[in-house]
Hints:
By secondary structure, this protein is α+β, with helices and mostly antiparallel strands. The chain folds into three domains: 14-128, Butyryl-Coa Dehydrogenase, subunit A, domain 1, CATH 1.10.540.10; 134-240, Beta Barrel (Butyryl-CoA Dehydrogenase, subunit A, domain 2), CATH 2.40.110.10; 243-388, Butyryl-CoA Dehydrogenase, subunit A, domain 3. The protein is 52% helix and 14% strand. It contains eleven helices and nine strands. It has helices at residues 20-47, 53-61, 79-92, 94-114, 117-128, 147-150, 242-277, 289-317, 323-348, 359-371, 376-388; strands at 134-137, 154-158, 161-171, 179-186, 192-198, 204-208, 221-231, 279-280, 283-284. Strands 1, 2, 3, 4, 5, 6 and 7 form a seven-stranded mixed β-sheet that branches. It has a two-stranded antiparallel ribbon with strand order 8-9. Strand 8 (279-280) and strand 9 (283-284) form a beta hairpin. Helix 3 packs antiparallel against helix 4 (94-114), helix 4 (94-114) packs antiparallel against helix 7 and helix 8 (289-317) runs antiparallel to helix 9 (323-348). The model has no long low-confidence stretch (mean pLDDT 92).
Amino acid sequence: xxxxxxxxxxxxxxxxxxxxxxxxxxxxxxxxxxxxxxxxxxxxxxxxxxxxxxxxxxxxxxxxxxxxxxxxxxxxxxxxxxxxxxxxxxxxxxxxxxxxxxxxxxxxxxxxxxxxxxxxxxxxxxxxxxxxxxxxxxxxxxxxxxxxxxxxxxxxxxxxxxxxxxxxxxxxxxxxxxxxxxxxxxxxxxxxxxxxxxxxxxxxxxxxxxxxxxxxxxxxxxxxxxxxxxxxxxxxxxxxxxxxxxxxxxxxxxxxxxxxxxxxxxxxxxxxxxxxxxxxxxxxxxxxxxxxxxxxxxxxxxxxxxxxxxxxxxxxxxxxxxxxxxxxxxxxxxxxxxxxxxxxxxxxxxxxxxxxxxxxxxxxxxxxxxxxxxxxxxxxxxxxxxxxxxxxxx
Length: 394
């Protein structure tokens, strides 16, 4: 390394805002992820298979229980610390981080926020321990951005049971989840309601979506529900409409922004290390002006994203982070991520299109993160309504 070189992608030292105890725990998590999880990542991505041994590693690291102390987890942690943990997970592998987030954020978050006390005590302890894995079934074959108004999956009540009919698509963990949170429109009052459907329920079929170019280890599923019977006891009792779904997405959307930052950080680390080591025309390419320009642009995007995410976490810790702030963070950081991975791939030249250097994998994975939890355009409309008072949604 050249004298006085600073390789840290956290160029402004945002991690210094963590406490000493948080930084020590973060270092422990990072070391564990590098040692136990990263070795699984490439083979899982190439084979498009989920490495189920990672579930035991997540359980061992206790990364599902920090917000659920009454169910066997730790006391709640600061949003800022949780954000840095998400960054580290995605820095190691976004596919496995997404599978983790579907379980801990979307599925557990839906049950925690929308379930009764009895339901929370029935399901969350096993989910905290990773004994039962969750999935979140919202998106439909014909309804992505328009799923709020165009949801076609229906729920019909018959006595003390509900009958679900419809289809869902892009459901992470869907091929193997023990508990699937299914969102469906009640035919009686036209309101969206939530149901926990157990694996193997009659009428429930799942099939893996093949041919993905991004997040290949995530087992996204097409799900079909044909007369699936769900007892009233398994309907999320505190869900009264799509607004409750939106609240789950508001909380998890900020985590997607941290995911994007984690991918950006890794891409920058790889590009900088390659530039220092790669020799052309008799010297490392890091010494050429155009290469330095690429690296500095990447670092600037990362630093701007860090600043936004740190402030969003501070607002969350003060219970002042709204849907518009989360939407702006998701739209901004994923756009910056797209630019960072593109510049990193450019810096690698031809070596950037093979998995040997990892950047090709990140380049592909970034496209999925850019798209899910609301596209840039949809998140822009959420912010646009907040700043103008006018809804531009069609």
